[in-house]
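Box 3.1 A note on notation
Throughout this textbook, protein chains are presented in two layers. The first layer is the amino acid sequence; the second is a token string describing backbone geometry. Keep the layers aligned when reading.
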Amino acid sequence: MKVTVVNPPFMNGKFSRTSRSPAIVKSGTMYWPFWLAYAVGTLERAGHDVLFLDCPAENITRHMLMSTLQETSPAMIVLDTSTPSIHNDLSVSKEIALLLPEASLFLVGTHVSALPEKVLLSAPYITGVAAGEYDLTIPEAASTIQNNGDLQQIPGLWLNTSDKPFFTGYREPISDLDSLPMLADVYRKHLKPENYFFAAARYPSVMIISSRGCPFKCSYCVWPQVLHGGIYRSRSAKNVAGEFVKVQEYFPQVQEIVFEDDTFSVDSIRVEEISEALITAGCRLPWTANTRANLSLEAMKKMRRAGCRMIIVGYESGSQKVLNGVNKGTTVEQNLSFAKRAKQAGLLVHGCFMAGNPGETRETLAETLKMAIRLKPDTAQFFPIMAYPGTRLYEQYRSSGILRTEDYRNWLTEEGLHNCVVDLPDLSAEDLVRWCHEARRKFYLRPGYLVYKAIQTLLHPTTEGRRTARAFSTFRKHLFRKSS
């Protein structure tokens, strides 16, 4: 059966829907659509003829999308969604339904997984929502439609009926991740590395996933709570290394691989096993991974020997009270010790900091900036809190009246940047955005950092210098202009 999988267009710009916080990003980052890509792989494995359209990455306009759909006339369409783009996504869905009334239309993604009934009640033209991990749900639905079967027998679906939305039952998260198709094979057939950019990595880079879920319980984190059911699972080290080798073989132009797991370093032993497998397999590309501040020095050294160039860590706050308030499970001292170990191991660090979590005050924000400068990461991001449906933080802020609005269009500015809608007792949304802007300026424009970056660029002009120049070309207009 002919199936079209779509990351729909939005805002005529590089809207990164796959990101944990979807937006047009200041650094120009464009995420690979890896969750959709997994579904494409399982659909093709089931024998379906799949067209994969990543509209933001390919600059496919809404008009171009409709023309392609009319020309190819698929029997089933799968459309990705996100919270800030949901009104646009539903509008695109309605136009598709009018264009191809006989086609089955399914929505996927974090927003519709968190609010399936609300979405379906507002959109009777949609066949249904594939909630949570949809890698197996979508191909089962496609085969059932092809064979005129009963969709109500497939777990993991919310279906529109003549009466009310019908839930087919909970689908267990996939236990054997090694059994899934490899993203590298899907990417090779359907996508181009040059269309994607990750500011922390060398360009062009490729994103892969080595695990799903997270055993830690941070209240703000959307993927583990909404997509993965809070259950942590991982691929084998051999399987991960095998995909790494495929990326090298398929894409000789690629300069780096990014492990986009929520938590690559759940434990140091697994990190060491993957590092050893990469070395044994002869993997040559440098790589980057999201980590917690729990990595041992020995694991970091093995990562470095296996080609790891940078680790991305969510420091979040310089206040222990704030860290405790979101169940982060780390300490300020642990963060400081982690930074020292990373330096000893020769790894660059990209530090992530948030503003606006429960208990945040002007004093705790000052502690965060002070810690960011003390930690001396290679790069840093300062992010106003974004509370997404389906997370405990969203429910906490919603029930306490802290959310300024529940009109999801306001989750973005007019130009598509992140827009904070959280008003804390002593800090408005504007205060939080303003602090992030000023913290960014104070971090990046301090003399010591500028000297450090100048030396790094001179020593490594074709690698780190090129990465910095590309990110800065987009980022500079946000760094130097006044905060709005």
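Residues 209 and 261 are 5 Å apart (CA to CA). The domain at 198-480 is CATH 3.80.30.20 (pyruvate-formate lyase- activating enzyme).
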